């Protein structure tokens, strides 16, 4: 058997990208997308920040392993956890053994993010301003951000950042934070109401100095992440080995 047809041997690992909306004094209190990173305490890339993750153990399902490593490193147990992609370039991990990572992504609300276990080796970073990470984790985060922003355009994914009841202004704030740009309030209202993804309730937000805004809820007949096929022509990694 030639080397070209030699059976590959690899370690299978899982990693998770966790997104939350957080504010920072430098942004004037404007919410941005953040994610927690873990400082590596061993080689390769000792001292660098990386995504939470670890090896897949015998008998573990992939989703269980992703949830386990996430809980072990950050203490977070998100309700939304979806498989993102598999990254397996032959040279993505220095050393003799090849590592293939199945990556999940998770979304948590701001109040959940505040309960994360942070310290010297776990810290939150703005997703659009990351240091040089270990392995190919900068590429992974870039892909996860593209996925999140694409889904914001056609699904009810913003629900993962909100409570069960919300105003249209709060919903627009989530879209603006994820997309990184301001949206016209009137156009946003028309688009959302025409989409059928939200339903007006008979409740109103209390404690506001002006006329209380109406609260909405998501249409339960529309799945959290369902919206049809991804627009492949916009795929940033088309043609690349991931």
CATH class of the largest domain: Alpha Beta
CATH topology of the largest domain: Nucleoside Triphosphate Pyrophosphohydrolase
| Order of helix and strand elements from N to C terminus | EEEEHEEHEHHHEE
What percent of residues adopt helix (DSSP H or I)?
10-25%
CATH architecture group name of the largest domain: Alpha-Beta Complex
Summarize model confidence as the mean pLDDT. 86
**Total count of helical runs of at least 4 residues:** 5
Organism: Leifsonia soli
Domain Nudix hydrolase: 9-149
InterPro entries: NUDIX_hydrolase-like_dom_sf (IPR015797), NUDIX_hydrolase_dom (IPR000086), WH-like_DNA-bd_sf (IPR036388), WH_DNA-bd_sf (IPR036390), WHD_NrtR (IPR054105)
Pfam families: NUDIX (PF00293), WHD_NrtR (PF21906)
What this model shows, in words?
InterPro entries: NUDIX_hydrolase-like_dom_sf (IPR015797), NUDIX_hydrolase_dom (IPR000086), WH-like_DNA-bd_sf (IPR036388), WH_DNA-bd_sf (IPR036390), WHD_NrtR (IPR054105). Residues 9-149 form the Nudix hydrolase domain. It is built from 5 helices and 9 strands, in the order ββββαββαβαααββ. The chain has 242 residues and is an alpha+beta fold. The chain has 2 domains: 11-150, Nucleoside Triphosphate Pyrophosphohydrolase; 154-218, Winged helix-like DNA-binding domain superfamily/Winged helix DNA-binding domain (Arc Repressor Mutant, subunit A), CATH 1.10.10.10. It starts with 9 loop residues before the first strand and ends in a 24-residue tail after the last strand.
List keywords for this structure.
single chain; 242 residues; alpha+beta; Nucleoside Triphosphate Pyrophosphohydrolase; Arc Repressor Mutant, subunit A; 2 domains; 7-stranded mixed β-sheet; two-stranded antiparallel ribbon; 24% helix; elongated; Nudix hydrolase domain-containing protein
């Amino acid at each position: 058997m030639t080397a070209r047809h030699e059976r590959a041997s690899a370690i299978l690992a899982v990693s998770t990208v966790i997104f939350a909306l957080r504010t920072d004094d430098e942004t004037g209190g404007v919410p941005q997308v953040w994610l927690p990173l873990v400082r590596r305490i061993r080689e390769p890339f000792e001292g660098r920040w990386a995504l939470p993750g670890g090896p897949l153990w015998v008998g573990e399902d992939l989703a269980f392993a992703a949830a386990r490593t996430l809980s072990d490193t950050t203490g977070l147990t998100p309700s939304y956890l979806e498989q993102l992609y598999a990254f397996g370039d032959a040279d993505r991990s220095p050393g003799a053994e090849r590592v293939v990572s199945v990556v999940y992504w998770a979304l948590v609300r701001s109040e959940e993010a505040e309960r994360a276990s942070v310290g010297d080796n776990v810290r939150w970073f703005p997703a659009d301003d990351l240091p040089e990470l270990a392995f190919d984790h900068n590429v992974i985060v870039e892909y996860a951000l593209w996925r999140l922003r694409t889904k914001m355009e056609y699904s009810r994914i913003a629900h993962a950042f909100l409570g069960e009841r919300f105003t249209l202004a709060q919903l627009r704030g989530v879209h603006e934070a994820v997309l990184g740009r301001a949206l016209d309030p009137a156009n946003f209202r028309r688009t959302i109401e025409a989409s059928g993804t939200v339903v007006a309730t008979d409740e109103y937000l209390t404690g506001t100095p002006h006329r209380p805004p109406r609260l909405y809820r998501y249409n339960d007949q529309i799945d959290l992440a369902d919206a049809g096929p991804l627009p492949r022509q916009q795929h940033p990694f088309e043609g690349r080995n991931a």
